[in-house]
Amino acid sequence: MSLLLDTRVLLRWLAGTAQLTPAVRAQIGDPAQRVFVSVASGWETAIKLGLGKLPAPANAAEWLPRELRANRFTPLPIALHHALAVEQLPRHHSDPIDRLLIAQALAERLTLVTADPQFARYDPNRRASCSP
Length: 132
What we know:
The protein has helices spanning 7-15, 22-29, 39-50, 60-70, 80-85, 96-108; strands at 3-5, 35-38, 73-76, 111-114, 127-129. By secondary structure, it is of the alpha/beta class. It has a single domain (3-129), classed as 3-Layer(aba) Sandwich (Rossmann fold). A 5-stranded parallel β-sheet has the order 3-2-1-4-5. The longest helix is centred in the last third of the chain and has 13 residues, at 96-108.
């Protein structure tokens, strides 16, 4: 199983908070596990930093790529088929970035690690839970 971290989980992991369940922390931290981070999460991080809505250092272009490498996370580019797959998703979720993450997880057969219960409405077999 390969993982795709949603933005909130990524930021919680990087902050070292205890808000992730022990099982999720073990999965993400397992050196044998492939962990992906969507380019959409970088975009969302930059948006929230620009709006002052994120308790993280400014200049994500400097620290985020370094943190992804240090944590052995693989960036997942947004391909055209990911973007177009959003059209076919049911409207369980209205956030465009979250919908793109869902489309990527489904298209790439990744388990989406999230605290958002709405994600499970798409494919509960492709969602790993963490605490809110």
